[in-house]
Amino acid sequence: MSLEHKNVRRVQDEYMCLHCGRSWDVMDKEPPACEVAAQPVVHTPPARVLRQCLNAPAVTNCAWLVSSLSDPHGDFGLIYAEDRDSALRYAKATIGTELVSVQRLKAMDSDAYGRAPYFEMNPVKLRKAHNAARRPVLSLIKLRGLWA
Known about the structure:
This protein folds into 2 domains: 1-39, no CATH class; 62-147, no CATH class. 27% of the residues lie in helices and 22% in strands. The protein has helices spanning 47-55, 84-95, 123-133, 140-147; strands spanning 8-11, 14-17, 23-25, 62-68, 76-81, 100-104, 118-119, 137-138. The strands form 2 sheets. Strands 4, 5, 6, 7 and 8 form a 5-stranded mixed beta sheet that branches.
């Protein structure tokens, strides 16, 4: 191994020089020369673009009550989704029924996290939604049993 490389590490079946970034096979008798390449020029975006990115509103999920129009009991499920259409699509895909109504429940917006749509399964939050909506709010498992 050449002595001109600095800070050499073995990574599986190769050696890697952390100084110049070059790597070579363990079986090589003469490794490549240690030459530090010129630092690449990093182009930073203008301050205007950075401000737009930082000031852009974050996409957050909202709370939506979903119910089957064919459900005689009037039971609801709680979906967190970005907008009404994505909540409706998610409810139809998850539960399998085509007749679904979607209503907004702003009182539960603060409990949403992430960006992907999901059904609320936490019993404490379902109870909180039940109290806020003044309607029965059930978990996905119970709704599938009722709406199937």
